[in-house]
Amino acid sequence: SDVGSQKERVVTEEEWLQKWEMGNIGFHKEEGNLLLRKYLDVLLNGRSGLRIFFPLCGKAVEMKWLADMGHSVVGVEISEQAVKEFFSEHNLPYCEEPVPEISGAKVFQSTSGNISLYCCSIYDLSSSIVGKFDGVWDRGALVAVNPRDRQCYASLMINLVEKNSSYLLVTVSYDPNKHKGPPFYVPESEIKSLFG
């Protein structure tokens, strides 16, 4: 198969938390992602004041960049350490509250109100909790999701976006027989079948 031995690979939430604890976060880009700058017009589509979702956000610097442009940013991340590092590295004051609908979950919100980061499993979110989004910046989420969970992930993402939303997705292309992932190889054909 064109996904090699990755099909059965599972990375647990504990393993992701451990990556953050150990500082093994090569997937984090301090300078942000150039593809977002390049395709920003596609994401915004001439609109301002959008609600933009960052799945598996980590401490992505692009969240502050878009919030500074006047957009409302919502992210989800399993690692509380990553969320707190985001706010401290950008010197952003925030408040922390439980999410009543999700056991053990917290939401960290900038005091300016335009950045809200949910600390929980992405699969615990729904549009009734976080609302719907005008745009999605998926720089490292689909390629981090376990291959067996992709359909569930895609269904959630489709449920979270407005009809006229823009979805920017970054994937990686390589021989999946030579790397066990993550990032996982997601063939274009699978992206089309997941998102239509």
Description:
With 196 residues, the protein is of the alpha/beta class. It has a single domain, classed as Vaccinia Virus protein VP39 (Rossmann fold). Helices cover 31% and strands 20% of the residues. It has a seven-stranded mixed β-sheet with strand order 3-4-5-2-1-6-7. β6 (133-138), α7 and β7 (161-169) form a beta-alpha-beta unit. The radius of gyration is 16 Å and the shape is globular. The model has no long low-confidence stretch (mean pLDDT 94). It is an enzyme of class 2 (transferase). InterPro entries: SAM-dependent_MTases_sf, Thiopurine_S-MeTrfase, TPMT. It catalyses: S-adenosyl-L-methionine + a thiopurine = S-adenosyl-L-homocysteine + a thiopurine S-methylether. Its main location: cytoplasm.
Concise summary:
The protein has eight helices and seven strands, in the order H-H-H-E-H-E-H-E-E-E-H-E-H-E-H. 31% of the residues lie in helices and 20% in strands.
Shape designation: globular
Q: Quick check: average pLDDT?
A: 94
Write the CATH architecture name: 3-Layer(aba) Sandwich
Count of beta strands: 7
**Strand residue percentage:** 15-25%
The biggest beta sheet is recorded as: 7 strands, mixed
Class derived from helix and strand content: alpha/beta
- In N-to-C order, the SSE pattern is HHHEHEHEEEHEHEH
Give the CA-CA distance, first to last residue: 21 Å
Helicity range: 25-40%
Tell me the CATH superfamily: Vaccinia Virus protein VP39
If helices are DSSP runs of H or I spanning 4 or more residues, what is the number of helices?
8
Number of self-contained structural domains: 1
The CATH topology assignment is Rossmann fold
CATH class: Alpha Beta
Low-confidence stretches: none
